[in-house]
Specification:
The structure holds 2 protein chains of 2 kinds.
Chain A: H1 3-12, H2 14-20, H3 25-51, H4 61-89, H5 91-95, H6 98-122, H7 128-151
Helix pairs in contact in A: 2-4, 3-4, 3-7, 6-7
Chain B: H1 6-17, H2 20-27, H3 31-58, H4 67-95, H5 97-101, H6 104-125, H7 142-164, H8 178-184
Helix pairs in contact in B: 2-4, 3-4, 3-7, 6-7
Classes of the chains: A mainly alpha, B mainly alpha.
Chain lengths: ~150, ~190
């Protein structure tokens, strides 16, 4: 089955159909998606600022990483859940949107970088290399957020 | 809203909508879109950082950092987010003044922003007065925690109601109950006959 057919099948499920045909569900899920974005932005910024030598400089970077971790994971989980629900309800439309694919590629890069590279690095209280990691993190997540907003416009 | 002020505001938003800058933004292909994108990023910076300070006040995050350190090192970023959010928000209102002004969601959002502003004022004027005694404590006193909870709830409400402005359920030109008309204050010439 082609990817396009799979997207069609996804939208035709009871879940996709239910959200699409409800007046309130899509906006409500979208609102939760935005609330999670604010939480994600806050948790990310606390660590990225610290890596850059800004923000909570009186705390070790490893401490800030530990303090932000549960909020970051919670926000990512909430965004993935609500984003998945939004996506299923308009999968066919998304398939043709460049902004959607840009977001998905940037999101995959951002997740791998954040959890596999930046977090282990932050736990070792890095110096200059930490600043580079913070800039890469900010650039990746900004791309995810901007491309995400443009899904609604394009 | 008092009946004395309402006609003046009705005229003000109509005047704003007739300005060349408002029309240009409204009809622009990309300017409006980029301003809205910057608005979302401003909210993320503002609410994201204020939420981190609130979580500290609730005693559930950054418990080893004194509250005064959070205020000094994080709130400047909150202020930067606030400026970006307010400037872009004002431009978005300027682009679509009439519909926004009579939007039930916009009005709810402004009300929630007032609640959040009063809460901030009370926090700095009263709750924080004896901060020296609990600055380093993992769990601040109840008054500070209540203040943080109100802040989180109010800003979450601002985000939700703000997003809902885009939906036209309660627009003036849709059939509405008398109660919705009372809340939106739609003038007769905007109401669908």
């Amino acid at each position: 089955m082609s990817l396009y057919r799979q997207f069609e099948a996804l939208e035709a499920t009871a879940l996709g159909d239910g959200i699409k045909n409800s007046v309130w569900l899509f906006p409500a899920i979208e609102a939760v998606h935005l609330l999670a974005l604010a939480l994600l932005g806050g948790a990310l910024l606390m660590l990225d600022l610290r890596l850059l030598g800004l923000g909570l400089t009186s705390q070790p970077t490893s401490r800030v990483e530990r303090d932000t971790r549960p909020w970051l994971i919670g926000a990512v989980a909430m965004m993935a859940l609500t984003g998945g629900l939004l996506g299923v309800s308009e999968a066919v439309k998304l398939y043709d949107k460049q902004a959607f694919w840009v977001k998905m590629v940037a999101l995959a890069c951002a997740l791998v970088f954040t959890f596999a590279i930046k977090a282990p690095l932050a736990r070792r209280d890095p110096g200059l290399i930490g600043k580079g990691a913070a800039l890469v993190s900010l650039a990746l997540w900004l791309t995810v957020a901007i491309a995400g907003r443009w899904i609604g416009f394009s | 809203m008092s009946s004395g002020l309402a006609p003046i505001l009705d005229q003000a938003v109509e005047w704003l909508a007739a300005q060349p800058g408002s029309i240009a933004l409204h009809e622009s292909l990309y300017a409006y879109t980029w301003i809205e994108t910057a608005h979302v990023l401003g909210i993320t910076l503002f609410v994201g950082t204020i939420a981190m300070v609130d979580l500290r006040l609730l005693g559930v995050a950054f418990t080893r950092a004194p509250v005064s350190t959070m205020n000094a090192r994080i709130l400047p970023w909150t202020v930067a987010g606030f400026v970006l959010m307010i400037v872009t928000g004002a431009l978005l209102f300027y682009a679509i003044p009439v519909r926004s002004f009579y939007s039930l969601w916009f009005r709810a959002k402004v009300l929630l922003m007032l609640v959040a502003a009063v809460n901030i004022f009370v926090f700095h004027a009263r709750v924080e007065r004896d901060r020296g005694r609990w600055d380093r404590e993992a769990t601040p006193p109840m008054s500070a925690r209540v203040s943080a909870a109100i802040s989180l709830a109010a800003w979450a409400g601002v985000i939700v109601t703000g997003r809902m402005i885009a939906y036209n359920w309660f627009d003036c030109d849709k059939p509405q109950s008398a109660f919705v008309h009372l809340l939106t204050g739609c003038p007769a010439d905007l109401i669908e006959p």
